[in-house]
Amino acid sequence: MDVARHGATANGGVNRQALSAEDIAARRHVIAWAQQRGFQTFQDEIGNLFVRRDGTDPSLAPVMTGSHLDSQPTGGKFDGAYGVLAGLEVLEALNDAKIHTRRPIEVVAWTNEEGSRFSPGAMGSAIFVGARDLASVLDVRDPKGVVLRDALDTTLNSSPIPRRAHGSVRAHSYIEAHIEQGPILEEAGLPIGVVTGIQGSRRLNVDITGEEAHAGTAPRRARRDALSAAVSVIAALENLTRDDDDVLRFTVGRCEVFPGSPNTVPGRVHFTIDLRHPADTTLRAIGDRIPAVVKQSAKNCAATVTEVSYVNPTTFQAAVIDRVRASSDRLGFRNMDMPSGAGHDAMYLARVCPTGMIFVPCLRGVSHNEIESATPEELATGARVLADTLVSLAQE
Ligand SMILES: [Zn+2]
Hints:
By secondary structure, the protein is of the alpha/beta class.
């Protein structure tokens, strides 16, 4: 609740976008808490913030945990912030219980997970694992024209803590605690989700071109109405992606009509497709059929389909999944295995080290929304499973 004051909105959510003044304030708050407890703090070239509790063997790589402090423009209090604060809570609890681990444990707040101000998202974790170059993002601008390089400088300079060189510290393993952002745990009445992986996603752009005409004089039989064609295309795509098990996700989230005049027949329509599935075979098979279905159903208009991104599904390592499940069982918390519907920083960490995630329920599964909510009991349960899993990994 203290962190949620940074960027608090009138409707009870937060607007704490990456590298903003609100994000900086939240970082400084976490740094202050960490320093009060005597933990070391570091930041790297992209602004990832590390809070370190030393282990007994300084030669060993740290076990990492964390998530992100940035939010959507109309985001909730828990998406991301929960994982960072649950990690910090674990470090404090280990101090209080005088538990020493062989490996260091580090809590990380990854920079710009949401990608709503500066694109793409999960920027900090992607750069940390070497999946993206710092140089490739420095000139990105936000919608107001602010260059990322400048916002990053301001952020780094606002906290005079030691700078860590890229690649100087590698993770032994990574566990991220997060609200589920979906309704499955709540519906099942279970407090813990053992996350087995993250579903893959494809983004495509569709452009349909017809011909502008006067709404009053052009006979309908002679029209090449791009919006009318788009409606038929989207209906055909809904049909293509119908899934009785309701696992395949298909969303048209943006649709632009040109010229956008009430008395002109639309000459062009642009819309986006977001397609997701945990199995790459399905993602590939269905996604690959989209261009043909679009062309067949575009009536007398021309249609082009452009693939913007294809992110393969992530499968977490059994060694970590089993450990999360064992911790949850040992503590007496009923749980279920489940894939993550949303993308997370863990997606990138899984490329370089054994990785897992712990989900806790959130009210009605609502997220990316100011009304996002979770109970203290639910969040504490997740933190307890996180603590148990981290200690077991840190004794390896
Ligand atoms: Zn998140």
